[in-house]
Amino acid sequence: MLTGMLEPSGGRATLCGIDLQENPIAVKRNVGFVPESGAVFESLTGLEYLEMVAALYGLPRMRPGAHQAVHRVLRFKL
User: Fold this and answer.
1) Residue 67: what pLDDT?
2) Which of 21, 27, 44, 63 could cross-link 48 (Cys pair, CB 3.0–4.6 Å)?
């Protein structure tokens, strides 16, 4: 439900103070989702996958913001 893939059957959910049903796009900007199976994405490199996700968030591949964001994520270490 938090990813927007399932409709809630009842109740309310908030994430980072944002109501899931009232503002699902804002919630998605704060949530990461990694499926158990890669399906379509198994043929992509890590960089290609991150570029695809950047495009889903409205950062076109050729736009400098997308490229910088992808490389920032690739450099991130826990």
Assistant:
1) 72
2) 44
